[in-house]
Structure formats: structure tokens, C-alpha cells
Amino acid sequence: MYFNKNSATIVVSQVVVPSGFDDLDIVAIDLTDCNNTLPIRLIAVYRPPSMTSSDNARLFSVLDLLAEDCVRLCVFGDLNLPHINWDLFVYPENFLYCSVVDFICNHGLTQLVSDPTRGDSILDLMLCSDFLCCDNVKVLPPLADSDHSVVFCTLCISVPQSSVSGNNYAGYNYHKANWFGLCNYLSAVDWVTAFKCCNNVSEYCIVLCGFRCRLCLMCLSRLVNCLIYGK
Question: Please, what are the domains in the chain?
Fold first, then answer.
């Protein structure tokens, strides 16, 4: 795992791997910023193809521990899982692959690497709980004499801070929202069509912001100069 820390406002903290798992190839860090944005935990892991069933169980046990209560989570690494079809989410019905799928589903992760990283297989994975924080994911040529391609992405750690003064802000009265109308509107949206032209995080955000603005106009009333919503 390599990243370019180009801002002094990013704080990197090592996460200690629980005792008893020191023989496994796992490194974890937490990234936070000065704006108290939701922290993101990065876990780099390598699973050798010859790993035994008992060691596979230990590996996903410690990954579960490291992922527990994480607000945002990204797991990177070569897990040597060539037989998962990530487009259809089809996999062999055995202990290893079922353990992987259980871990992915239990923590709400999405696999973001779409191109092969060694031969015709996607071996190097990027599993994220918040896929909007990982932008511009792409596979690059191998470094030096490596037989694996490089997986590159841009991590979006910080959230832009609003410059609007609280005393002049007209907030929305969520307590009196038309929740039934909001649910009906969202259930009728063709999301595949809505996002079909989106190629990166910024474009997804623009589309989502458009829906948010329409929903606010349709289903919410405003509170002028109020700092406490819902009153």
C-alpha cells in the first residue's frame, strides 16, 4: 500500500493488529483530517494461494475485528480469488469463497477493481464500504519485474466545508417533511438511467445533488434563521 500524502491536514494513525495474528500479512491505518470528517480505515492484506482452511478462517476473523464499527472502510490487496465473477457476484460454493462473501456482505463492501491485475484474473481487490470515497480507480502497468499490475485510486477523505453563516441559514424542517411523498418519489426513479452517463465520483454527486434539491422543494418546508432543525 502506497499513498501520496499531499496535505499536512491529513493525520495517519497506525491500527494495531490484535495479538495472535502476527503471522498474517495485514497492515492497517486510520486517516482523518482537521475538519473532523468521518475517518477512513485502510487495510492492506495478502492471502497466499496455499493458505490452509484454518488460516483462511483466522484471516477473515481478524479482518472482521479490524472492520468492526468502522465508519468508512477500504480493504486492499491480493486475496488470490480468481474464481469470483464480480460482475454477476457468482463464486464457488466452498469455505474460502463463502468466507470472503460473508465478510463483504456483513460489512457492506463493494469491489471496485474491474480489470484483470494478473493474466486474465482480478486478484488484487479494492473493497470499500463507501465507494464514493474512492475515485478514479484504474489498473496501471506493473512496477519493475512484478507480475501484478498496480491498482491506483484517488481517496476522497475530506468533505468541503460550508461557508454559510449559521445565523443566516434557512434550514429545512425535517420534522414536518412529507416522508410518504419522498419515498414514493425515490421508489419511482430509474436509477440505472439516472447514473448511466456518470464516470466518476463528481458526476455521481452532481446527479444526487439534483435529486436532493428536487426532493427538498417537493417535500420539505424551510425554517428561517434557525439552528435547530425540526422545531
Answer: 11-155 (3.60.10.10), 166-223 (no CATH)
